[in-house]
UniProtKB/TrEMBL annotation:
Signal peptide span: 1-34
Domain SAF: start-end pairs: 124-186
GO BP annotation list: bacterial-type flagellum assembly
Compartments reported by the entry: Periplasm
GO cellular component: periplasmic space
Protein name: Flagella basal body P-ring formation protein FlgA
General function of this protein: Involved in the assembly process of the P-ring formation. It may associate with FlgF on the rod constituting a structure essential for the P-ring assembly or may act as a modulator protein for the P-ring assembly.
Keyword Phosphoprotein annotated: no
Annotated family: Belongs to the FlgA family.
Keyword set, alphabetical order: Periplasm, Signal
Major location (coarse): periplasm
UniProt-listed Pfam families: ChapFlgA
Highest classification ranks of the organism: Bacteria, Pseudomonadati, Pseudomonadota, Gammaproteobacteria, Enterobacterales
């Protein structure tokens, strides 16, 4: 017994019918997709979140980061008509980085306003401790490293380069693999009370220096009182490096 596979090519008429059916289904899908404001709410919220985080990254010097977004649309979105004009998204007051919120408004005559939440995951290399760092320890290059973390849930500040942490003193104990932030660190003491310091005064392109005595302890950036050992006058000066201060205002 011989079996044969019987094949037949669709006639031109059948081809046209299939083509029309496909086009019809596509139109139905497109019409149902455009029949409500769901797509508009999703699109404007994502676009707003991307722009906001991009600006944040630029202002804080994040560098390269990976962003993942998930919109949480209101249940009534599917009942809203499509906005003929471009919807406008406004950030709400109560929000966090991991859950951004926007009030999206349709400016049509019969417009609407809906609140959309955008859940975010922002993966970024940040500084962590390579081992437990005890209080009073001055951070060295081997103590910290960069590791990719989701920064969206973080409330505390963080560092994006190890140079920001190196040289600072641990103020509170930091455990191994813990994220390092500015609240845990402080600048090392660069001037001790009673220490002889170099006082530098600058005005325009002219610089003058003399010796002085620190009236109090100071870290980098601190403003302390310093006495000029020659004139015995006391001035305000900012600590810039170990044993060096820049004069701010002289007092008589």
């Amino acid at each position: 017994m011989i079996f044969k596979r019987i094949t037949s090519s669709p006639s031109p008429m059948r081809k046209n019918i299939f083509r029309l059916l496909f086009i019809g289904l596509s139109l139905v899908c497109s019409a149902s997709h455009a029949a409500d404001a769901t797509h508009q709410l999703d699109k404007i919220s994502r676009k707003s979140a991307q722009a906001e985080i991009k600006e944040m990254a630029h202002n804080q010097g994040w560098g390269k980061y990976d962003l993942q977004l998930e919109t949480v649309l209101p249940t009534e979105a599917s009942t809203l008509p499509v906005c003929k004009k471009n919807p406008v998204a406004t950030p709400t007051a109560r929000r966090t980085l991991y859950r951004l919120r926007y009030d999206v408004t349709c400016p049509d005559a019969q417009g609407w306003t809906q609140t959309v939440a955008v859940k975010t995951v922002v993966n970024l290399p940040i500084v962590i401790a390579m081992e437990t760092l005890e209080r009073g320890r001055v951070i060295d290059t081997k103590d910290v490293a960069l590791k990719v973390q989701d920064i969206a849930p973080l409330n505390a500040q963080f560092f994006t380069t190890t140079d920001e942490a190196i040289g600072q003193t641990v103020k509170r104990r930091i455990t191994s693999a813990q994220i390092v932030n500015s609240a845990q660190l402080e600048q090392p003491v660069m001037v001790e009370r009673g220490q002889s310091v170099l006082m530098v005064a600058r005005q325009n392109d002219i610089e003058a220096s003399t010796s002085g005595e620190a009236m109090k302890q100071g870290r980098k950036g601190d403003v302390i009182r310093v006495k000029n050992t020659s004139s015995q006058r006391t001035v305000d000066a900012v600590v810039v490096s170990p044993g060096v201060v820049h004069i701010l205002v002289a007092t008589r």
